[in-house]
Amino acid sequence: MRIEFTKMHGLGNDFIVLDARERALPPIDSAAATALADRHTGIGCDQLILLEPSTEGDFRMRIFNADGSEVEACGNATRAVGLLHGRPARIETLGGLLHASPSDNGISVEMGKPRFDWDRIPLAYAMDTHSMPVGWDELTDPIAVNVGNPHVIFFVADPYAVDMDRLGPLIETDPLFPERINVNVAAVTARDAMTLRVWERGAGLTRACGTGACATAIGAMKRGLVDRRVTVTLPGGPLVIEWREDSEIVMTGPATESFRGSFDPADYGMPAGGTGA
């Protein structure tokens, strides 16, 4: 049995999508996800996406980072899966139920409501998440937001001047963040525009991070730096983030199917039998 996959990306943040909604697949564990994500010996991706049946939504989306860790949410993957589905969908994730629908500008996703309480980020101990009294070298005074997964945001003059290869993993794994953290560095360039780079938990620097764009926009809005609709430009391109009056975050942007293929599960240490998922 060979397993079919779809390779997709959202602004260069790329995914292997496996569809087990109608046909059971062999179990996917951390080791298999890491092997498939390897860009030298596997197919290669930032995240592996597994679609399964759901009793809460139209289907369930599981997300594995390149290091094999399973995470709660991924905005770019949600847009990609929305494109693959081809019509409005309610998508169950570990971070909550998301709504994706085609729009004139790509795929729009209702990402849920942001959380700011220190134990919902979560942090290791109580502190003001709006202005955290912590810092790492030149990165100081961050704000923390959970948008289905945890983010810490630093506002700087030039995100590209920050040594993210060094500071990203240092902050990601700091004991202050018991579940690790996504690290965002952003510059506000206008009331409706921002520039952003993201060190993703378990994936490193990526060309785009949808939840990072959401968290960073919300953090800037909370501090009064931008209006409630803003274009966030990442290395891979722009996303439009809106924080509605009902507190729902809406992210809009493109998604692309790159190619399709298949692989032998035995090549990646996966058993041949299906899971029934």
Automatic annotation (TrEMBL):
Keywords: Amino-acid biosynthesis, Cytoplasm, Isomerase, Lysine biosynthesis. It is found in: Cytoplasm. The record marks 151, 200 as: Could be important to modulate the pK values of the two catalytic cysteine residues. It catalyses: (2S,6S)-2,6-diaminopimelate = meso-2,6-diaminopimelate. Substrate binds at residues 13, 47, 65, 75-76, 149, 182, 200-201, 210-211. GO terms for cellular component: cytosol. It is an enzyme of class 5 (isomerase). Homodimer. PANTHER family: DIAMINOPIMELATE EPIMERASE, DIAMINOPIMELATE EPIMERASE, CHLOROPLASTIC. Catalyzes the stereoinversion of LL-2,6-diaminopimelate (L,L-DAP) to meso-diaminopimelate (meso-DAP), a precursor of L-lysine and an essential component of the bacterial peptidoglycan. This is Diaminopimelate epimerase. It comes from Novosphingobium mathurense. The gene is dapF.
